[in-house]
TrEMBL record:
Keywords: Methyltransferase, S-adenosyl-L-methionine, Transferase. InterPro entries: PUA-like_sf, PUA_sf, RlmI-like_PUA, SAM-dep_methyl-trfase, SAM-dependent_MTases_sf. It comes from Streptococcus minor. Residues 167-338 form the S-adenosylmethionine-dependent methyltransferase domain. This is Class I SAM-dependent rRNA methyltransferase. One of its GO terms (biological process) is methylation.
Amino acid sequence: MNTVRVSRIAEKKIKQGICILDGVDFQKQNLTNTVVKLVSEQGKFLGTAYLSQQNKGVGWLVSRAAIELNQTFFEDVLHQAKLKRQTFHDSEWTTAYRVFNQDGDGFGGLSIDLYNDYAVFSWYNPFVYSIKERIVDAFRVVYPEIQGAYEKIRFKGVDYDSAHLYGQEAPSTFTIFENGVAYKVFLNDGLMTGIFLDQHEVRASLVDGLATGKSLLNMFSYTAAFSVAAAMGGARQTTSVDLAKRSRELSQAHFDANGLEMDHHQLVVMDVFDYFKYAKRHGLYFDVIVLDPPSFARNKKQTFSVAKDYHKLIAQSLDILSPAGIIIASTNASNVSLERFKKEIEKGFVGVKHQYLANYRLPSDFVYNKNDESSNYLKVFTIQVQK
Ligand code: SAH
């Protein structure tokens, strides 16, 4: 095994329990896609890691001990992770959830989700991908009940992004449940599956009555999952806005799965900023507005980033929000801290009185690294306007 010396800063981070390895913390070295022994500048052993280029970071610390990444290691971490999800495992109301979440479960660069009897593996870098057989073999020992699996490639350099991985093939679309609400998912069509599982609790708040009797505007709606949750929770009316044409049929599928008629549910294919203008011009008002944009988006006219532009979404929502209306402000941008996100939100509220009702972070199946705040990337605030 190769030995890699790390800077004092990296040593400090490792001792704090941060697992993601940052390129700037390493002295120049050419190793990649391999397991290494990390040592301090003085040559003191710090832990076992692997190096591999991914979207964020150049590798992961796996353990502070000298270990081997063999099948037994993966069986152990998968088994421990399974024990932590017992309540999800036992639930009849929620059948799709995360069973392995990167460094939160002791091995960064890998996540695994269950959708009924099928698993979806996400590989975040070439090294994890190169040892996938070992990981899958371990998984099949720990989860003999799972019928089949798919894989998602979340790094550059492989010429496909989704494929069947083992076992029985899932139907091209099928129904999963979350808090008793049905959603239609697809496991082998690009990187997305029709639902973002990390929003379990926010959808639960809508099912549980946050929008009962109310109208709801769902911006950046993708498959309109928030709208469907609200409709099942008794919302009077929902409007879902997304730029992608395909969002319409995918949203329709979620509504159909619950036997919801579309009379009071509208699916709009439009840029959200155009919709804000449209709604204002037509004097439309909404009791609840959900704002859950991608961290970064670029279209022909403009770029949008949560870090710099989120306040615009708040400000424009205020123009079309009913008195005492509620904004659900959400972001999954890991580079934007809770404090920074709140600052952006406050910038949008200038002079408008408001009250924070609830704050959601990652749900309990998305076990994050308690020593690395940025791994708890989801930030959602439910805010009531007083006017
Ligand atoms: N809120 C969704 C997930 C949003 S994913 C959910 O809970 O499932 C981001 C979505 O934003 C994508 O579907 C993308 O098509 C859409 N999008 C990106 N830029 C947009 C824009 N300017 N206007 C409308 N939709 C946009």
